Amino acid sequence: MPENEILNEVDRLGGKIALLISRFQDMEQRIRELEIENETLKMQFQQVSANLNAMNDKSNLQNLTHLLTQGKEKAEVKTQIERIVRDIDRCIGLLSQPDLE
Fold first, then answer.
1. Does the N terminus or the C terminus of the chain have fewer Cβ atoms within 10 A?
2. Are 55 and 48 contacting, i.e. CB atoms less than 8 angstroms apart?
């Protein structure tokens, strides 16, 4: 192979290598951008999930309040709430006891 052809081939290979390096750098930049976007979307998802859970809790509380107060007197509702609190306290007490073997 003549020297001219060898130099031309080396030049072509050099151009291809430069193109590959450029594409590689572009892909690295794109990966960094996508990682940032992914983190942003994760944070947004967590915020939306927290808001949804808060709204569900509020809705459940409203439903419970509605059920408790349907056609009942204030004293009767208070008695029901006290019973629920006692049940919760009893459950917490059971959970805090050491395992009996």
1. C
2. no
d(CA 30, CA 8): 33
Residue 52 CA to residue 50 CA, distance in Å, equals: 5
- Locate the domains of the chain by residue range: 3-72
Of 95, 93, 69, nearest to 81 by C-alpha is 69
Question: Could you read off the pLDDT of 16-39 as tens digits, one per residue?
Answer: 999 999 999 999 999 999 999 999
Q: Contact at 8 Å (CB) between 80 and 68?
A: yes
Provide the 3-class DSSP secondary structure of residue 99. coil
CA of residue 87 relative to chain centroid, distance: 33
The SS3 call for residue 10 is: helix
Q: Report which of 81, 75, 33 is spatially closest to residue 61, judged by C-alpha positions.
A: 81
Q: Are 77 and 68 in contact (CB under 8 A)?
A: yes
Q: Which amino acid is at 7?
A: L
